[in-house]
Amino acid sequence: MHIHKYEKWWLVFGTGTLIVFLLIIGVSAFHAGTHPNNSKWTINYEKVNEIAPFDNPGVHKVEGKDWDYEVVLVASAFSYNPMEIEIPVGSTVRFIATTTDVVHGFEVAGTNINMMLEPGYVSEKITTVDKVGEYTVVCNEYCGTGHAMMYSTLKVVD
Ligand code: CUA
């Protein structure tokens, strides 16, 4: 088959542009690694329930740290442990969370708390909650058939 000279040039140019485009996408998507943006350290996700502090989920008052409370959270299809979190208004809280199975989200609607929980990684968020209220925690990563039913409550009390 005879290919016209210019046609051939455009073919090469088109293919080259496509490769450059894919490289840019690939590099920008993965240069920071594929782990979630809040992740601080790794964990064996099959043994989460045996590894501290995840062997003791819940709200813990702490002393001598930059935060007043530690909220230890374990997500699994399709619920959170604990189901309900209660913290005093104005306190600084360190949320540490992970998952025992698939990717889940931990988004507290109406606040700046929004973590992605990926198996094998521990996510962390330190924040101050300064408004009394009952906040809904939702899973914002599709995780399976029970995804829409996966929620819990954060109570900020006076
Ligand atoms: Cu868990 Cu969606």
UniProtKB/TrEMBL annotation:
InterPro entries per UniProt: Ba3_CcO_II_C, CcO_II-like_C, Copper_CuA, Cupredoxin, NosZ/Cyto_c_oxidase_sub2
GO cellular component, one term: cell envelope
CDD domains: ba3_CcO_II_C
Coiled coil: none
UniProt keyword list: Copper, Membrane, Metal-binding, Transmembrane, Transmembrane helix
Family matches, as PROSITE patterns: COX2, COX2_CUA
Domain Cytochrome oxidase subunit II copper A binding per the UniProt entry, residue ranges: 55-158
Subcellular location(s) of the protein: Cell envelope
Catalytic activity line of the entry: 4 Fe(II)-[cytochrome c] + O2 + 8 H(+)(in) = 4 Fe(III)-[cytochrome c] + 2 H2O + 4 H(+)(out)
GO MF entries: copper ion binding; cytochrome-c oxidase activity
Database matches in Pfam families: COX2
Sequence intervals crossing the membrane: 9-30
Free-text function comment from the UniProt entry: Subunits I and II form the functional core of the enzyme complex. Electrons originating in cytochrome c are transferred via heme a and Cu(A) to the binuclear center formed by heme a3 and Cu(B).
PANTHER family the record matches: CYTOCHROME C OXIDASE SUBUNIT II, NITROUS-OXIDE REDUCTASE
Name of the protein in question: Cytochrome aa3 subunit 2
Species assigned in the record: Lysinibacillus telephonicus
